[in-house]
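Good morning N.,

You mentioned wanting to compare the apo and holo forms, so I went ahead and generated the holo version with FE2/S2 (inorganic) cluster. This is what I fed in:
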Amino acid sequence: MAIIPKKNAIPTQEPSVRAHNFNEVALGYSPEVAIEEAKRCLNCKAQPCVAGCPVNVHIPEFIAKVKEGEFEEAYQIVNATSSLPAVCGRVCPQETQCESKCTLAKKFESVGIGRLERFVADWHNEHATGKARAPQSNGRKVAIVGSGPSGLTCAGDLAKKGYAVTVYEALHKAGGVLIYGIPEFRLPKKIVAKEVETLKELGVEIATNVVIGKTLTVDELFEMGYEAVFIGSGAGLPNFMRIPGESYKGVYSANEFLTRSNLMAAYRDDAKTPIMKGGKFAVVGGGNVAMDAARTALRLGAEKVYIVYRRSMEELPARREEVEHAQEEGIDFRLLCNPVEILGYKNPDDPRDPKNGFVTAIRCVKMELGEPDASGRRRPVPIQGSEFDLDVDAVIISIGTSPNPLIKSTTEGLEVNRWGGIIVNEDGLTSREGVYAGGDAVTGAATVISAMGAGKVAAAAIDEFIRNK
Amino acid sequence: MYKILTKKRLNPTVTQMEIEAPLVAKKAKPGQFIILRVDEDGERIPLTVAGCNQATGGVKIIFQIVGATTEALNHKEAGDSIQDFVGPLGVPTRTDGVKKVCVVGGGVGCAIAMPVAQEFHRLGADVTSIIGFRNKDLLILEDEFRACSNKLIVMTDDGSYARHGNVTVPLKEALEAGEKFDLIITIGPLIMMKFVVATARPFGVPVTVSMNPIMVDGTGMCGGCRVTLIQDGKPTTKFACVDGPDFNGYEIDFDEAMSRGRIYFDFERRAHEETCNLFKLQ
Ligand SMILES: Cc1cc2nc3c(=O)[nH]c(=O)nc-3n(C[C@H](O)[C@H](O)[C@H](O)COP(=O)(O)OP(=O)(O)OC[C@H]3O[C@@H](n4cnc5c(N)ncnc54)[C@H](O)[C@@H]3O)c2cc1C
Ligand SMILES: Cc1cc2nc3c(=O)[nH]c(=O)nc-3n(C[C@H](O)[C@H](O)[C@H](O)COP(=O)(O)OP(=O)(O)OC[C@H]3O[C@@H](n4cnc5c(N)ncnc54)[C@H](O)[C@@H]3O)c2cc1C
Ligand code: SF4
Ligand code: SF4
Ligand code: FES
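and this is what came out, ligand included:
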């Protein structure tokens, strides 16, 4: 059979339409197209794709089932290693993970592994009847801090083994970044809600509005009878640029902007939480978070949205698909540009002028790529005298996050590294007995799948630790 | 859901409630705050913990009705429940080594200052309280302050009750008369706190101010609550929800904080009008 060189396209909403709504951009494969795509897989003996996946999803096996139209079986195979397939199929950076290792990718386009994974998960969610059943309890308690992908995965794995698991979440809704960060048009909230629902069916208790380190400490959790604690508190502390003008009105961290829009639903017309809408926006940064912020601003009615990034297109860390979608939607990429100052309005004659203190422009300097740095990427260096101003009404800063020090500062003996990441061994064990950690709280901002993987590893280690006690 | 145990109107625009939240009641210290949402889809707003009752698990809040959310909260009654209530957040007020303190509160800021004054009193410090209001109708917590202060001075802007004038007037008099406060704590409108700092500056008395910027999560995640401190001539950014809300008054950039506090002015005015109209329809 001749190889089909290209992936089956995934239908998407028209760019001109979707730029004005929050509905999902990519619409997913139909069963027929999924089977067609599955047929492209060569079922390679060496399974190079599997090695590219951080949790080693049994890719050729599940794709073989898709080919036969046995979608539920396919789902079960994926689910054996990945507990959030509907999420990962949508948001994994497949082009640097599973799909980058696909044999087909050497000459053609890789198999659409992510798209197939999404398809089987959606199919399952639509057709599966019957609820998950809580297994026989073993009477032992484990506490999870944070309800992001690492915490949810750890909770799910432990609950399936019979542990009584409580997930403590600081915010009023479970899901972590999947809820407050990644927007609806990329990851519909109902998918996350469904995953949380499944956990509850397994007997997991979700306690929202509890800040560990404030409402309860890690030590108190042990006093309450939990035999182990998993910390999956994420990397939620936004970094700022430390340039002049960052306190003007209209300067947001991406976290604030996205939280207002997603978690607080500011995108709705009847929203109670305010957000700046319309006007011109500059988003500083080049990761997924920057793309999400830019495209959210656009959907909220911005007339112009710039991405300001100091390296070039090749170094842009965001998922390829998101960059393409952003370009199609009309986001203006200003690459090799670095902000040096944010300018604000000041009326010298009238200190009470309501426009005072609002952003008017962002001053950038042009960059060129120099020698490669430690990370192997060519380092951008400013071009003397190339400063220019972009007129904007708002600036969203999306240059990364650091782990929140709240838990570390209230937990005696919990060691962290120079960047605030919790130090763990290969099992996810921290410097404290019985305390495990994983996800962005350990690595700094990374990916959903790696957070999930860390939750899995820790769940296995916690099980072993408690059984051997 | 979190049950409203008691509700009391302190004046036409200020209400006191006790909310059932035993975990918070057990932990909260003076100077800390909570974040609540009245209903599903509601906004998250921060309010200071004004006291705790261990027996009932009640956490006392005192709030001024200024906009849509506080209006909606005020329409709830004892026995009703609110959607979310999380805390205690922020760093408790520093009390160690303070033997003689002056607490300066303005308006609803007095609700935030009251538990702090009570704590100093409990710890055996000498407490002078200066509380100020726009007029007599807005006066709150006079008895509570009297009970925990060695000396209480009440001021009204228009002279409709007690002494006429701003809180800075008696503060200046006290300082000039040679009162040696170890610390001045001031809580109220930014402009008032700015002037309290200016009044204290020539006397070199440390001033703690309690900042109340607009917040979202209250856990250090969004950065929306950032305030600028000028330390050694250099600006430093702090997050009021996790680093504060108390800060060294001499370091705060008040002008910036006042400007940032007005970012959603138009939106809030509209939202408030809509809520008021909604309630009128009911
Ligand atoms: C806008 C955005 C877009 C992204 N896009 C992608 C993408 O396309 N693909 C991808 O793979 N990755 C993406 N990521 C990264 C990915 O979402 C994260 O790596 C992942 O969510 C980390 O999971 P986590 O479980 O470690 O923590 P988080 O998801 O950050 O969850 C941590 C949870 O812990 C809670 N918490 C924190 N402190 C406490 C405490 N003291 N007590 C109780 N609860 C606490 C937080 O409120 C939060 O709910 C994106 C991130 C963002 C912000
Ligand atoms: C740490 C902290 C503790 C606080 N403690 C108390 C308290 O104990 N009692 C109390 O009454 N209020 C307190 N506040 C202020 C309170 O959070 C706001 O009044 C409330 O968020 C207003 O919500 P709203 O929707 O009713 O009004 P909005 O419609 O949001 O605002 C109405 C008006 O209030 C102003 N405003 C909005 N947010 C704030 C704010 N954070 N501080 C001051 N003014 C604001 C707006 O500029 C606007 O003019 C505290 C604030 C912080 C940050
Ligand atoms: S989980 Fe992510 S990396 Fe692994 S196979 Fe699925 S899409 Fe690829
Ligand atoms: S490498 Fe590609 S073609 Fe080979 S088994 Fe994996 S998905 Fe199929
Ligand atoms: S309120 Fe979000 S960081 Fe303080």
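Chain A has a mean pLDDT of 92.

Happy to go through it together on a call whenever suits you.

Best,
F.
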